[in-house]
Design goal:
This protein is an alpha+beta fold and 100 residues long. It is built from three helices and five strands; from the N terminus they run βαβαββαβ. It is globular.
Amino acid sequence: MIRVVLPAHLKTLAGVTGEVRVEVAGPGPATQRLVLDAVEARYPMLLGTIRDRHSGKRRAFVRFYACEEDLSNSPPDTPLPERVVAGEEPFIVLGAMAGG
């Protein structure tokens, strides 16, 4: 099980509190793409909120973190850190802010 931390507004939209846990399906290692596929499959109301529905690209003001690393610009099929796969650390989806 992979632990996923969502920002407050997405937790509200999905009707959850705390972390969500998802199983990733696939023959290879767990990746950002597989985790987000699993989150969107389990919580279809989140489709299009984290990444574009058509291109699959991360939304501009959404960032991904794991093990104190910014994974936002990593290719979506890059394997996640082993500590995330083992459930020791969460995969964090964070809503970024802009302005001045």
